[in-house]
Amino acid sequence: MRIMHVADVHLDPTFRYLGPKERERRRDFLSAFNYVVRKVLELKPDALLVAGDLYDRVNPRNPARVQVIRAFRRIHSEGVRIFVIGGNHDTPRSVEEGASPLHELDAAGYARFFSKV
User: Fold this and answer.
1) I need a labelling partner for 91 at 20 to 30 A (CA). Which of 46, 51, 104, 107 fits?
2) Is position 103 annotated as part of the catalytic site?
């Protein structure tokens, strides 16, 4: 079994102190994620393991969510199983704080999500 592993992707980070360059820095994170997606599609491992912090926050903006859903749908359509573990940035501290955005991926059937909460 071949497994591709990635962690700490931190999509949709906030860098307010960067001012106008914040958007550019956010694009850097998305570019890194897109590189991983391309490599998964090229190498076609049996599984992709995202071991924490796919997102940089519990409530990422919609564009980042849409990018991930599209990418995971494509990976899933190639027969690669996706396993996502919630990290300290993208998992709420309690049930009262709401659900992790990673639940969407599990609900859509593109990934299996694991979390302590």
Assistant:
1) 46
2) no
